[in-house]
Amino acid sequence: MADDAGLEIQLCSERFGSGAARGCRAVADGSLQWEAEERRWFSGAFTVKPRGRNGGGGGTPGTASLPLSGLQAVFLPQGFPDSVSPDYLSYQLWDSVQAFASSLSGSLATQAVLLGIGVGNAKASVSAATATWLVKDSTGMLGRIVFAWWKGSQLDCNAKQWRLFADILNDMAMFLEITAPIYPICFTLIICTSNLAKCIVSVAGGATRAALTMHQARRNNMADVAAKDSSQETLVNLAGLLVSLLMLPLVSHWPSVTLGCFFLLTALHIYANYRAVRAIVMETLNEGRLRLVLEHFLQRGEVLSPTSANQMEPLWTGFWPFLSLSLGVPLHHLVSSVLELQQLTEGHQEPYLLHWDQSRNQVKVVLSQTAGPETVLRAATHGLLLRALQGDGPLPGVLEELRNQVRAGPKKDSWAIVKETHHVLDKLFPKFLKGLQDAGWKTEKHHLEVDEWRATWLPSPEKKVL
User: Fold this and answer.
1) What is the pLDDT of residues 198-215, one digit of tens each?
2) Does the domain made of 88-279 have the CATH classification 1.20.1250.20?
3) What residue spans define the domains of the chain?
4) To the nearest whole percent, how much of the chain has pLDDT over 90?
5) Three-class HEC string of the chain
6) Can you give the pLDDT at residue 125?
């Protein structure tokens, strides 16, 4: 179809993913002609310029269309970039750099271990080498089980911190392997220690990788994102293997050169890991991010965006807890009498009970059976608010008065302060929660560390005593 002036009319259009749309026009003879698209690397599809018209009369094809760029189809999730988080590309680029550096360092470490076991030494005993290898592996297996039991529940809450910790520990393990042949008497002990560290790395690294993959997948495509991440890592390791084949013959007879290369690669590895982890923008709150956002809110009355809070979040606190805040503790740890239970439950109707130990600056929270994500978030906010009373940052008027009472001696009763902060939160928390949601935080879920204890209690236990 064409108008009276003989101009082409656009009848429809189409696009692949987030690529540029192209239109279909009717020309004078009634055939259809598709517009050509500019070929771009990260567009979902690209086309080349049309060679003819495609219409109802059996005309020649209008375009030669390719659904995906070859490398993009192999190494990036389907629907990229819309199917993944905005931080996906920057993280994966730095992650590839660190994987390449780690692959080269691993080659140097493997060479040192084989040398220490006796490969190439005619006097070396096969049985002794086998026994050393078995002891090394068994030590690592036990360490993997113990570490998963000890710290497994914290890996989701502080995925970025544990990810960085795992990579630094891996560098330390490889350093031990490189230095092991220098001390043949302690060789077995050194490589067992190294393998123990590497097994911890495998648990922490694998678990945090899964947590980050879940964050990156935005279309219920976690399996696709994980599979493409594996493909990227395989390609990088293959490149590292080829470079290692060229590098090892040059440095194998020079221990000082080997160590120099290792330290350079380790520096690159740690820097790339830091940049990769810093590029991640988590939209859920853990204790560290909640603390930063709450402090900013109390001081300036506004909520930090996820991007800003993630840039400020400390990355070196994964192994030891940064805050003395315990959520989901058992009720019998806090109360031993009716009076203490009355003090905990009096004056508020929230489905959690909070105890504050001023001397140790510890906050323990008992959660009700009905406590949901919003209740847990309020309880954590309450605990951090109490800790802020012992800090030095500016606070709103009512909280500043409470701080002065806390600092005055003798100390005001902790139960009374907890009760007063409950009333403060009744007004403060709804504004804070709305600010979180408006700023882009996901408040329907969280990454706060919560134990499994839940409790029920009567609203007024003192009446039952009477």
Assistant:
1) 999 999 999 999 999 999
2) yes
3) 9-67, 88-279, 287-465
4) 46
5) CECCCCCEEEEEEECCCCCCCEEEEECCCCCEEECCCCCCCCCCCEECCCCCCECCCCCCCCCCEECCCHHHHHHCCCCCCCCECCCHHHHHHHHHHHHHHHHHHHHHHHHHHHHHHCCCCCCCCHHHHHHHHHHHHHHHHHHHHHHHHHHHHHCCCCHHHHHHHHHHHHHHHHHHHHHHHHCHHHHHHHHHHHHHHHHHHHHHHHHHHHHHHHHHECCCCHHHHHHHHHHHHHHHHHHHHHHHHHHHHHHCCCHHHHHHHHHHHHHHHHHHHHHHHHHCCCCCCCHHHHHHHHHHHHHHCCCCCHHHHHHHCCCCCCCCCCCCEEECCCHHHCCCCHHHHHHHHCCCCCCEEEEEECCCCEEEEEEECCCCHHHHHHHHHHHHHHHHCCCCCCCCHHHHHHHHHHHCCCCCCHHHHHHHHHHHHHHHHHHHHHHHHHHCCCCCCCCCCECCCCECCCCCHHHHHC
6) 59
